Request: fold
Amino acid sequence: MEGLDDIVEEFLVESHENLDQLDQDLVALEQDPRSRDRLSSIFRTIHTIKGTSGFLAFNRLEEVAHVGENLLSRLRDGALDLTPSRTSALLMMTDIIRALLAAIEATGGEGTVEVADTVAVLAAALEDVPTPAAETAVVEAAEAVVAAESVVEAAEAPAAAPAKAEKPAAKRAPAKRASRAKAAVPAPAPVPAVETVAVPAPVAAVPPAPPVTPPPAAVAPAAPLAPEPGTAEAGPKGRGVADSTIRVDVDLLDNLMLLVGELVLTRNQIVQYVGRQNDQDLIRASQRLNLIASELQESAMKTRMQPIDHIWSKLPRVVRDLGLQLQKNIRLEMEGKDTELDKTLLEAVKDPLTHLVRNSVDHGIEATADRIAAGKPAEGVLTLRSRHESGQVVVEVADDGAGIDPAKIGRSAVNKGLLTPETVARMSPQDLLNMIFAPGFSTAAAVTNVSGRGVGMDVVKTNIEGIGGTIEVESVVGRGTCMRLRIPLTLAIVPALTIECAGDRYAIPQISLQELVALDAEKASAAVEEVGGASVYRLRGELLPLVRLADVLGLPSDRHDGHVVIAVLRSEGRRFGLVVDRVINTEEIVVKAVSSQLKAIGLYSGATVLGDGAVALILDVQALARRALRAESADRQETRAAITAAIASQERQRMLLAAIGGGRRVAIPLDTVTRLEQVRSDTVERVGSREVVQYRGAILPIVRLDRHLGAFGNDDRETLEVIVYADRGRSVAIVVEEILDIVDGEASVHSDIDDLGLLGSAVIGDRVTELLDVRAAILAADPAFYNPPPGMPDAFAALEAAGAHLMEV
Amino acid sequence: MSTATDARTVPVTSQLATFWLDGDLYGVEVEHVQEVLRSQSITRVPLAPPAVAGLINLRGQVVTAIELRERLGRPARPAGEQPVVIVVRLHGEAVSLLVDSIADVVDVNVRDFEAPPDTLDGSARDLIRGAYKLAGQLLLSLDVNRAVGT
Reply:
């Protein structure tokens, strides 16, 4: 059975079941020849077999089923009456189909089973001739064959005899007939042929196969070949296909999952309780319970698991057809076909995945001529990869095509009015790449009938996020693109972080959680900056907007000791810190739906029962982000934020206030700031007349704002406060004396009193503040900063050299 | 099963499970009542409508609890008094109602039925079909479907 495609295997299982039903139906039909229902059911079965066998290229099977279907359709429509001879013909068809299926199961091919005679008999039955004549025809046909095949005359005689004698009884007892015919055959020459069932070679060694196909005798090869459950014949390779699987109602499985979920929770309760006991026996028993419950949970989950190949198997055809249509030569490679995930999720991933594949074929892989011109092999390679990774399934769709050019994306975004040219200029290549997920964005240069129909990557992203997954894109111009999906293994049981806020516990799905930061009171007061109502934490230099869960929930936090616990969450490409009272645990939770009126609040995706039996709400991180970050445009790291920022900058500009020494304050537009950093002054090195620091594997030119603006700061500090500014893969560091604040720059009082390096000044927070000419400051550090990059590939190379860190921001 | 929402369609006789709430006796059709629980811990749901008292764990099932006092516009239950939870099943889903205390199941006859007294005010009036005049006591018939539809 190994070596059989899953799809063939499924076909076999299904067909075996259907054929059993067919036998019953046919026999029952004799009693009630007018039963439309039964005829329809038989018709459907044969129709399905015909369709699938045609699809799987089992031609003989298709041929038999096709003629049978014709006969059945006329019977069903009442054009023909069901006579005993027609029933016989249909039963014969059933048997020959069994024989073919058995051959397929044994060898993967149709073997040597001959179908011509069955087809002839069925065709004869299709003729609207009076019953007796048809019957004779059948018999005559059989006899004719018998006569022609003198080789197995001996064998044929007994077989043919019951054929004639039994004609009326035949339909009633196919099985009996089969065994009798089988008994008749072994007597003469081809003994081994029948005995060594299911093994292809000996069957092939019986050249006089045709003679055994006339009406009743046809069952001779069929009976032993068919996998009779439990018989020795079916046994050589273990259980036959039909026995090794069983069809189960999905509702039953869902219910099983539910019960297992309950068991897991009860187990948690017991384990917790027993942990406080000293009774050794009880402890041992609870350990066993713990183990068994875990295994049961795993097994129950597996019942709903299917290999991803179920949805992949349709893709080679998609790729082939599209490739032909687009005249591209594409090879599809698949790695990790066996990776399993929940059936529901599999269904949910199917369409997005197909879309990604179509996209890759259409837009990713270049036309053959272009590939050759680019010095690539003419044949494009599309690779599907899937694997388990820390409780998730990772699915990648990678092509070796032209890659996505961030510059093109940027232009396109500007043309579509999604971004302003200024924003685009400041965005990192990765941010620009992420624009493909923005609503209303399509990179297709021309709308083709393959993809680029407006339903684009944003829909893919929405669908994937709808099932708790994530999508990311990686692309190197000229080398290819890789779309990576991360999908939870199952929806019913998810790993989650339990936290406490205002005395209540809540669960946060692990998939959204990036890290936890705990700050003691002293650190928190320094690192969490409360500015203009918005708090920000500098997480390794990056500005992380903070959302206080207690505030969102409208509850008083019960953490009064100044400690701050931050769960760093990621949602829809945005990162934010959720401030909670305490972190309790990570545990597997069973997701329970909540009523629609609670869902409508837009904060909870469900509820769960914790180990101690208490109910905890599951926070909907996406909704939370949307709700809490509405006004937070400071987080310009990500695409959506960048769009928001573009809008926000038209209304008001947020400014970073910094002291540069000598009591002077400078305001720098916050959206130009990539990150804040502290560097030790003894790490500053010199390159010619310029100062640089080594920063994350790259050389970062620095400009001291005090000197740049002619102020006199304190030079002998141990650490330097640095504002890192990155654009198109280049970064510079601006050194200030102290970072003071972040303010909304509604600086109505502008003045053009300026000086070298300044744009002007304004009154911000009751103090005159100088507006920094960022461009001039940057040019002071790196005169080549604004030079057009020498082609994006170089920018990529630079970035790769710089380590992907800067790209991640 | 009677899901009638109109006084005219009230069956001739029916059984009501009765309970006390702020000094008044209420009844709901017994068919709707799945079970009665005491001393359940309730998880509050921040930002939920005021009548949603929270969620309870009913043998692993998460069930919304409706504070009937709030629903009927009555003053909050005095501190220290534990509510009784009546779990009702509507359209296959379990919802629970918080009441003061549970009373008997009584047989009522439509003869004793009368439209809601005019003294009942707005929000409660929508939820109460009418009153059965029992000996020495009025029994208010609660429309469960409306009561849970916050």
